[in-house]
Amino acid sequence: MTSPFASEYPQPKARERIIAALDVATAGEARQIVDELRDEVGAFKIGSQLFTSAGPDLVREFTSAGVRVFLDLKFHDIPNTVAKAVIESARLGVWMLNVHTLGGSRMMRQAVDDVRQVCEQENLARPLMIGVTVLTSSGETEMSEVGIKADIPSEVLRLARLAADSGLDGVVASPQESRSIREAVAKPGFTIVTPGIRPASATNDDQKRVMTPAEAAAYGSDYLVIGRPITSASDRRAAIESIVNEIESAELLVDPPR
Predict the structure, then answer these.
(1) Catalytic residue numbers, as ranges
(2) Range of 143's domain?
């Protein structure tokens, strides 16, 4: 029996739900990981470190070779600047990208509208556009420091609703918030992408709000972003197989604990 908190819409197979994070310093390291694992996972995440080091050419190289790329740059600026950045990301052929929901509804709506128009004009596949809510490294102290007084679950839910109302395809959120998002956001096909995933045998590193792959899948996460437990493993394929088994075991978690 599938968890009642999973998406009502068909989900990819367990392996395809894994996004391997290319949190490495050089294009050479990234190529080695992609060459080894491109048939083992659903996509690869390129974030600020690798993008700053290797630039858009590496993104284009991967997408041209049929590799699905999640461009994790968390665009947050004035609406026109973010919209133009998103358009250029679409021209790179990325499968998914994100903006920061704290940029507000006008920023998100313009990005959605402008990229849709350009993709139609240029016959491009429109990337999935998702909104970052609260970073999984953030706790109540960090939230208070920047003037956000709401508790984290309430703030994540508020931002997820704002993202949905602004036309985004989904959000990035901790797996701890996936259940409440799935229950509260009625938008068809709304995608939840969760970092902060640590297999049962792994450490939490710098993440605070974490869950295992099985727990995250049972709570309703669609895609799981996993970095060091895969890329730093002595046997990366074996690490992925273990994670796949954990995701598949989520079918047994029909009533995840609150």
Answers:
(1) 74
(2) 14-252
